[in-house]
Amino acid sequence: MFGYQGKILHVHLDTGETRVEALPEEIYRKYIGGVGLATYLIHINTKPKIDPLGPENVLAFASGPLVGTFASMGDKYVVVAKSPLTGFIGDSISSSSWSRELKRAGHDGLVIHGRAENPTYLFIDDGNVYFKEAGNIWGEDVWTAEEKIRGELEDKNVGVISIGPAGEKLVLFANIMSDGRHAGRSGLGAVMGSKNLKAIAVRGTGSIRVANLRELSKLCLGIYEKAQGPNTEKYRVEGTPTNVLSLNAHGCLPTRNWQQSTFESAEEISGAHFLKNHTVSVTACSSCPVACAHNCVVKGGPYAGAAVSLDYEGLYAMGPDCGVGDSSAIIKALELCDFYGMDSISAGVTCAWAMECYEKGLLTKEETDGLELTFGNHEALIQLIHKIAAREGIGDMLASGVKRASERLGRGSEHLAIHIKGLELPGYDIRSLKTAALGWAVAARGGCHNRSGAYEPDLKGKVDRFKAEKGRGRLVMESEGRAAVLDSLTMCKFLRACLTDFYPELAKLYELVTGFGMSGDDLRRAGERIINLKKLYNIREGWTQKDDHLPPRVMEDPVPDGVAKGSLVTRQELDLLLDDYYEAQGWTRDGTIPKEKLNELGISVGE
Amino acid sequence: MMVTVKFFANFREVTGQAQVTMPNVSSVRGLLDELVREFGQRLSDLLYDPQTGELRDTVIILVNGRAITLMEGLGTWLEDGDTVAIFPPVSGG
Ligand code: SF4
Question: What is the pTM of this model?
């Protein structure tokens, strides 16, 4: 095969058994790779309604067909499992040379079954799999774990993904990390922790063939050139933190647990501020031609030496959402999330909820272990992050994410919990972004900006962002489809602006890599199929229409400030949007997938 | 008659200003003409596609928080006290 290796590796941690499964060509054509392939793998390798932290849950990893080839624009891997945070599909993507190594070792995917008796790490060395004792790295942060494993294997180039202490302690929003990047959302680090699996190291020395190198080089060079042009300039210059001021000007910058939508200290935490005061280098993920990772360091003061690769979402969560306008403190808070290996969006939003509860008297000082949890108190925020990672005192409640924490606390605190399906929301105030509100409500993995770019038509002024109307359902559906295709080919979303004609160009790329005939329309169809496959998994796990919801605050508390003042999404508006979306998808009125739709898309896993 | 203009990201870099006030401009087109006169060719390059002479789709302009694409585009009228914000599109983090 070209672009693929045709094989999936299964590893059973409880029995020590490993086996290689050859997948039929048809599965690759249907599900492409990455998120499509890994979703397929969890469908057929798990039973419904299992405990996400029990041994029956599997972790499915997959690379995409572009990985390791000349056409790879950011070598990415996808990991999919039942999420302990949402109880629905959890899927996360990260860049790492690990994905290229796995493919060069001969595998397009890896499925981890069962639970190891003792802390273990795996070493996949081409065709061999070794179960290694991980007692000496259990408890270590991911940087140290990566270094020790590379030292032990005497190979500094081996690909390593690992979990930090938060994953070991089953913090429900723990992530999986590699080369300083995160498979961040939906708590798959806790699934890895529940399996007593600290890390997976891979060394692959095989080759990956492509079908038409000459034509592929031509096509890729064109994209590479654009990747250096104006379409990606914002990522390269200020990076995603540039969003702080734009969203503030739109009145969409969620502040103090979404009590406001503008932040008075936005200038002090803007992209330009970080660039001038903190950025020491700008680097790229493995094989990426763009380079957008802004590596920031605190140069003086109490947090001197703290360092992080800064991204808008983490910045929003630890900054405005917690009322913190001190850029050094934000870097410190984010560094700690990396140190412990947890999702900074979920962590920040959960801390912001605790702060509002404290200020409103729903949490007493005794219950916060003596912490003065007021908005803007970054010393307390930092203490809180330590406590979450250790599941100590109040940290234990918060380590389960804001949905469960608010259910446990009660006292009306559920109204203040900013999540969808249990996943804490990213940094766009959707009360005045009505297309995005729909996109977030229906996303299979919960409140998420990465599984559809539904905020784009709102923020680009393609539609009236303050208005809910028919037609948004189709926009969301199309946006989800495009995201699913990028996540399955595994191509960075930041490169989408470098494509002139999305589907035909990507189909061509796919064809030149794999040799499989694929038209733009076929690829669009594959995206639709993958979205349906994810939804089918959620239905299997008990999804009902009430799970396509918005946080109470988004529906009941109008934006009090800024240009979006007065905005909210009413029940009536949400119902109209949901009806429109289900109809666009060809689903039933209550949002389930009719049998004919599954047949039409050729999906047969549910039977 | 006075309009407040806020620049962000690359627009701020090119003009060297976070905010300016402009007197006597009645439409967005008139405002941009004035701004180009004041800040020069680099601003013009950032705003317009040299081939078509049209506003680039990498430019977002809001008047009081509303996108001009949903009003009269460059022909959108401005009133005393309006705030115009100019930036590149927001995209995911
Ligand atoms: S554009 Fe940025 S996030 Fe995407 S692969 Fe490149 S460096 Fe990584």
Answer: 0.95
